[in-house]
Specification:
Order of helices and strands: HHEEEEEEEEE
CATH superfamily: Immunoglobulins
CATH topology: Immunoglobulin-like
CATH class: Mainly Beta
Number of strands: 9
Strand content: 25-35%
Shape: globular
Structural class: alpha+beta
Distance between the termini: 14 Å
Radius of gyration: 16 Å
Length: about 150
């Protein structure tokens, strides 16, 4: 049991380290996370990297620099959210898969409630166009969370 706890802690540390930019000293910076939220792109409104949460998890999704609209037509500067559970962004121009780990919010939704198993999870918010094609890494944000038992 203790080994599983250690492995989970190491996995979460690796997920956080791989998904946050480093500042000049090589350390992660809260200021950089705040700056990301002030730039064009997507962001998690109610969670930050490393949060410990209870399931079900309420997710609030935001975007700056584009407008949320339902899927179905291509409109410049518009699109909708996708949430990738335990995975990374989708390359620009690629279709966002639709399965149990790639959730589509094609009706223009900006909130969802997720039932997640206890332990560490990586959530990636990905913005896509009206035909579910990814706007790429610049329009994605990942964060690591831990779901309490």
């Amino acid at each position: 049991m203790k080994t599983n706890s250690i492995i989970s802690s190491l996995l979460l540390t690796a997920l956080i380290a791989c998904n946050q930019p480093a500042n000049e000293s090589g350390n992660n910076s809260t200021q950089e996370g705040t700056q990301k939220q002030n730039q064009n792109g997507v962001y998690f409104v109610n969670h930050k990297d490393g949060d410990t949460v209870a399931s079900p998890v309420i997710i609030e999704m935001g975007v700056r620099g584009m407008t949320v609209e339902p899927a179905g037509k291509l409109s410049e500067g518009k699109g909708h959210h996708h949430l990738i559970i335990d995975g990374s962004f989708v390359e620009k121009g690629q279709m966002v898969p639709k399965d149990e780990t790639h959730l589509h919010f094609g009706k223009g939704q900006t909130t969802d409630t997720l039932k997640l198993s206890p332990g560490p999870h990586l959530l990636t918010l990905q913005f896509g166009d009206g035909m579910h094609q990814s706007y790429g890494q610049d329009w994605s944000q990942s964060l690591a969370i831990i779901v309490k038992k």
